[in-house]
Specification:
Pdz3 Domain, alpha+beta, Thrombin, subunit H, 373 residues, six-stranded antiparallel beta barrel, 3 domains, 20% helix, 7 helices, single chain
C-alpha cells in the first residue's frame, strides 16, 4: 500500500500565498463596494425673480377677469323615451357658449346651439346651473335669447361695442367652452371683414367678422371682444376640414346683434320688412332664363298689391310670367336671398323703389314695406 506523499515546503508556500491573496481580495471588495459612497454636495439653484408682467399681458389678464363672469356654459338636453320600458331619459346632445345680456337674466347664444333642444341648462361662471326658457330666436341670423331666473347680483352683462368701424389687424379675444373646457380664453386679430356665411336656415349672414383667434366646437355663441373688453361679435362658425380650429373663425357682428336681440326680447322673433309676395325657386327662375327674382303670387291686401306688382298668372290657358325684381333702391338682386338681405337694410314702413322687368321693359315701382313673417 502506497502512502500519499507529505506536503512539501514549496506546496505549503503556494497554499499560504493563495490564502493571503483571497484575504486581500476580500478586504479590497469590502472597502471599495461595501462602504457608503459619500453623497455629492448639491448647491441649490436660486429662482430668478419674474419682475412685472408686460403691459399687454396685464391688459389681457384684466380683460379676462372682467369679461369671463359674463360667459356661460350651455347644455342642450334632449328627452328620449325608451321604446321598451317607456321610461323617459334626458341625454345631453350638445354644448355651447353664451353670454349674459342684461341683469334681467337674458342670455344670448347661437340658434344652432339650442336648436331642437327639449331642455336647456345654463351654467354661470360661478358654477351655478339654471334651467333656461326660450325667449325667442332669429334663425336667419343664428341668434337666440334664453331666460334664466338667477338673481341680478350673479349676472354680469358685457359692455356693447361697435363693429362698423373695426379694422383688419385689430386685436380680438374669444371666451367660450371649446370641447366642453369652460372659461377658455383665446386671442388673435381681425383677419377680414364683410364675409358671408350660411345660417342654419341656408340664408346668408352678411358683414361677418373673420378672426384667427382659436374657435372650436363649443365656442359657438360665445363673445368676441375687442381689446377694451367690449362685445364686437358672437362667435358662430369655423372653417375647418378637420373639425378643429384652422385659424379661420367667424362672428356675427355686434351691430347686427344689437338690432336683432331687442326685437327678439320684445316680440319673440325678428320683425322683418317685406313686400307680401311669394317668389319662384331660384333654380326654376334660372332654368327659364330669368335673371332676378320672379314674382309668383301677390298676397291680397299686401303692400305689393297696393303698389301694383304683378304675379305669375294664367291667361287664356297660357302662363304669363310675372314681374321680375332686378334691384331695390338701385342695389341689384339676383336671388331670393339677395332680396331678403336687401330688405334687411330697412324697417317696416320704409319706402323703397323697385326696379322690375315687365313684358321686356324695365320700370320703377315705389313700395312701402310691411311686416312679414
Amino acid at each position: 500500500m502506497n502512502t500519499p506523499p507529505a506536503n512539501t515546503p514549496r506546496q505549503k508556500r503556494v497554499s499560504f500565498a493563495l490564502l493571503l491573496l483571497l484575504i486581500l481580495l476580500g478586504w479590497w471588495f469590502f472597502f471599495v463596494y461595501q462602504r457608503p459612497v459619500p453623497t455629492p454636495e448639491i448647491t441649490p439653484i436660486a429662482v430668478t425673480a419674474r419682475g412685472d408682467l408686460a403691459a399687454d399681458e396685464q391688459s389681457t389678464i384684466a380683460l379676462f377677469r372682467s369679461a369671463s363672469p359674463a360667459v356661460v356654459y350651455i347644455t342642450n338636453i334632449e328627452v328620449r323615451r325608451n321604446i321598451f320600458s317607456l321610461n323617459i331619459h334626458e341625454i345631453p346632445q350638445g354644448t355651447g357658449s353664451g353670454f349674459v345680456w342684461d341683469k334681467q337674466g337674458r342670455v344670448v347664444t347661437n340658434y344652432h346651439v339650442i336648436e331642437s333642444a327639449s331642455r336647456v341648462e345654463v351654467t354661470l361662471a360661478d358654477r351655478s346651473t339654471w334651467q333656461a326658457t326660450l325667449v325667442g330666436v332669429a334663425p336667419d341670423k343664428d341668434l337666440a335669447v334664453l331666460q334664466i331666473s338667477a338673481p341680478a347680483e350673479k349676472l354680469s352683462p358685457l359692455p356693447l361695442g361697435e363693429s362698423h368701424n373695426l379694422l383688419v389687424g385689430q386685436k380680438v379675444f374669444a371666451i367660450g367652452n371649446p370641447f366642453g373646457l369652460d372659461q377658455t380664453l383665446t386671442s388673435g386679430i381681425v383677419s377680414a371683414l364683410g364675409r358671408e356665411i350660411q345660417s342654419a336656415t341656408g340664408r346668408t349672414i352678411q358683414g361677418v367678422i373673420q378672426t384667427d383667434a382659436a374657435i372650436n366646437p363649443g365656442n359657438s355663441g360665445g363673445p368676441l371682444l375687442d381689446s377694451a373688453g367690449r362685445l364686437i361679435g358672437v362667435n358662430t362658425a369655423i372653417y375647418s376640414p378637420s373639425g378643429g380650429s384652422a385659424g379661420i373663425g367667424f362672428a356675427v357682428p355686434v351691430d347686427v346683434v344689437a338690432e336683432v336681440i331687442p326685437e327678439i326680447i320684445r316680440h319673440g322673433r325678428l320683425i322683418r320688412p317685406g313686400l307680401g309676395i311669394a317668389v319662384a325657386d331660384d333654380q326654376i327662375a334660372k332654368r327659364i332664363g330669368v335673371a332676378g327674382v320672379l314674382v309668383m303670387n301677390i298676397e291680397p291686401g299686401s303692400s305689393a298689391e297696393s303698389a301694383g306688382l304683378r304675379g305669375t298668372r294664367r291667361v287664356r290657358g297660357e302662363i304669363v310670367i310675372g314681374d321680375v325684381i332686378l334691384a331695390v333702391d338701385g342695389h341689384k338682386v339676383f336671388s331670393y336671398d339677395d332680396l331678403r338681405n336687401a330688405m334687411d337694410r330697412y324697417k317696416v314702413g320704409d319706402a323703397v323703389t323697385l326696379t322690375i322687368e315687365r313684358e321686356e321693359r324695365q320700370i320703377q315701382l315705389p313700395v312701402v314695406l310691411e311686416e312679414v313673417g
